[in-house]
Structure formats: structure tokens, C-alpha cells
Amino acid sequence: MNILALDTSMGACSAAVLCITDSTRRLHMLQAEMARGHAEALMPMVEEVLAEAEIDACDLDLIAATTGPGSFTGVRIAIAAARGLALVTKARLYGTDSLAVMARAARLAGLEPKGPFAVAVDARRDMLYLGLYDQTGSRREGPLLIAPDDAAGLLPATLRVAVGNGARSLCDAAATRGRAIEIELPSLQPSAAALAEIALERGATSETVRPLYLRPPDAKPQAPAVARH
Fold it and tell me: What DSSP state is assigned to residue 178?
């Protein structure tokens, strides 16, 4: 089984190849933090991880992409690349949300919560992208687009940890309710390596992979010009 995983949904760009045989398990990943430029960075990363894995694109069995939430442009980049590569290689497709991937990335980074934990990402305009997960990283709720105070009201009584760049806002809101939440991994990003692990475990495929948008785009179509006489 050869899995290619792609993420461009937030503040990083990453590509990973996970190669599984009866006796071996090899992971090759590249990741770079960036605010923009994902489209230019992704395919060279794909070429490099395929070369490191010593396989060709036609050897891929499954191609996975994060579906959002995240930046509108970034989410589309990985999905478009995954669809295009799947069309050419006949590999199967898989997609899952960015917060689930972050929850797995947190566990891979060493997070060992004693109860449920939150993934909170700054969605701007005083809003958060929020996901709640049990201590193994399995989803309990989300992803949601929600105000910090409303998010604090959803937290399970046993939740003590939040990760992601929105964790501070969540923790501050929780404090006004008398809740003490610890911040871990505040710079955490989705990871193609974590996505590859999820894709392998779930063994599911999708007919297609579509973006998950939790809010309308900031850009609005221009109103048609009105002719003046």
C-alpha cells in the first residue's frame, strides 16, 4: 500500500508518502510553514517525497487531502492536486477535515491528555474553528465555526487541554466561566504525515473529495456596472 497525503489548508504546506508492506513501514514527509505560496510549493514537495520513497506516481494506491476548514485558496490547492493525480494514476481518493488531522498530529507530537482535548484554530473575525476529541484523538464534536465564548460553553467538564493557534482565545473565554484550560502546541498545523496515518487506519475512500467551508468567502462578486446616460 502506497499512500500520498497532501495538506495546504492552513499555515503550512506538506506532502507525505506512507509505504506499507507485510514487513516494512516507511514514511517520507516534507513540511514548510508558509502564509502563502502553497500552490508553487506543493508539487515540488510531491516529487521529492516520491523520489525519497523510490516510487512513481503510478505506484500510488491512495491519495489523501485535507478538506478544510482553513483558507479558501489553500483548501482548494491540495484537493485539486489530489483529484488531478488520482485521475492520472487511477489511485483512490480520501479526504478528511483539517482539525481531525491536527488532533492526530498532536498525538504524534507527544500529546497524551488524560481526557478529552480541543483543537482550536483562529478563524479571524473573533471566531474559532473548533473540534473536540477524546484522549485517543477520536472525534467527539466538530468541526465548528464558533465564537470563543460559545465554544467555552461546549467544553466537556473533564477537558483540560487545548491545542492550536486559537487555544489562547478559547482558554481566555473558558477562564471567564471559571474553567482552567492548559495550552499545548500553540503553533500546531495540519500534517500530511498525520493525514496518511488516518487514511491508512480508516481504509475508506471517496468518489470525490470536496472542500469543507464553514463560512462564506470574504471576496464578493462585483456588482455589474450600471451604464450612465
Answer: T
